[in-house]
Predict the 3D structure of the following.
Amino acid sequence: MGLLLLRIAVGVRSMIHGGVYLSNHTHPVILEWAAGLVVAAAVFVLIGLLTPVMGTITGLGVVGTSLARLLDSNSPEILLLTMAAAIVFLGPGAFSLDARLFGRREIIIPATSRPSKVAAVNNTSYPVEYPQKGESL
C-alpha cells in the first residue's frame, strides 16, 4: 500500500510540475518538450505501467526542467526527484499494472549454513550439524 501512495504522490506532483511548464509559453521549446515528457511519464507511474523506466524518465525530466531555475534551495523538485528514484529502485508494488501483466517480484533468500555457537567457540570453519530435538550435544 505504501508503494501505491508513493506512486500517486510522484505521479500527481510530476503532472503538476510538467503542467506548470506547459501552461507558461515563455519557456524555450525544448523545455516544453521535457515538460510534456514528464507529464506522460507521470501518467504511466501513476497507473504503474513500466514503472522503473517511467520513473527514470520522470526523474530526468524533473532535473531537466529544474535546471532552467538553477535548483534554488527551496525547490520542491529535489524531493520529487528523490521520490522518483525510490520508485525506480523499489518497483511498482502489488497494486499496479506491472504486477498484473508481469507478476510480482518475489525475493527468495536461499538457506545458508550458519556456523553454530559451538563452531565459533572451537574456531572450526567446517559446518557443524545442529542437534535434533531431544538430542544433546
